[in-house]
Amino acid sequence: MQNQLGRGALLLIFSELLLAIMAAMVKHVSQDLPPEVVTFFRNLLGLAVLLPFLLQRGGLHAMATRRLGGHLIRAAAGLAAMYCYFYTIAHIPLAEAVLVKMTTPFLMPLIAWLWLGDRIGPRTLLAIMLGFVGVSFVLRPVPGHFDPVHLVALAGAALMSVAMVGIRSISDTEPPRRTVFWFGVFSSLISAVPLLWVRPLPGPEHWPWLVAIGVVATAAQITMTTAYKLASPGRIGIYNYTSVVWAALLGLVFWAEALHWSTLVGTALIFIAGLWNLDRRRGLNAAPEVQAVSSQTAPDRSSETRQS
């Protein structure tokens, strides 16, 4: 069991490294291409890479669904979150963009409460409050320091929370494989529309990067899925926050992005809040509300492309 836990933790850390590398590649190509273009090819190429895995059991027949509306809502929210995330990657330090996105687990209980009527227990509420104190340090809402792009990042985290709770709302009939398929289909179709007017389109020098983004994101998804099969999200979920470390290193090496002291304080507070919220999952006596949040997070993150 301990060996499985260690392997799961290592795989999750590696998947976060892959996601940070993907974000760095998005930042690189965003110097030439608008986020609408990058988002479309991220979705299309990601779906192309995943399709053989999705169809290996049952083919297209297994993808038939009576919940197209639910899939569409989930895909629209996830796609909007991806637009926000890719935009922020291009305009603020990489680590800050990744860090604000990590507030998604703190927003999910609020969305689930509003949408599904889930209860928010005192432990989860405290984690949410502490997490958003950390976010306030990252945003630095004082004259001369506040960057409105951070609000776009926060909106993206909220939209991702809606997408994840949307998965839960249809999970009674829709298996993860089908959810991934319809997200890929809908997100590719919807994100193709802006290409009618957005320019420039990719040139030959961009294609290797766009293909790499799709491949690396898919590899990260598969690695994360394997990690959560080996170990409980409540035991290894805290390692999701290593993505901030990887992003900070990549931002420093390639763009000389130094983190402000308030961002470091915010990172520590968000990390502590995440650890506090996950720690109770280590035993069978975990609080019901913590189990609910963790059980939402694991399928959502492992059964789709994490939308980024």
Task: Name the descriptors.
308 residues; mainly alpha; globular
Summary?
The chain has helices at residues 2-29, 35-54, 68-91, 94-101, 104-116, 122-139, 149-170, 176-192, 207-230, 233-236, 242-255, 261-279, 288-302.
Report on this model:
Residues 281-305 have low confidence and may be disordered. By secondary structure, this protein is mostly helical. It has helices at residues 2-29, 35-54, 68-91, 94-101, 104-116, 122-139, 149-170, 176-192, 207-230, 233-236, 242-255, 261-279, 288-302.
Q: How do the strands and helices of this protein lay out in sequence?
A:
Elements: H1 2-29, H2 35-54, H3 68-91, H4 94-101, H5 104-116, H6 122-139, H7 149-170, H8 176-192, H9 207-230, H10 233-236, H11 242-255, H12 261-279, H13 288-302
Poorly predicted runs: 281-305
Number of helices: 13
| Average pLDDT, all residues | 82
Succession of helices and strands: HHHHHHHHHHHHH
Radius of gyration: 18 Å
Helix content: over 70%
Given helix and strand content, the structural type is: mainly alpha
Describe the global form. globular
Largest sheet: none
Tally the beta strands. Answer: 0
Amount of beta strand: under 5%
Distance between the termini: 31 Å
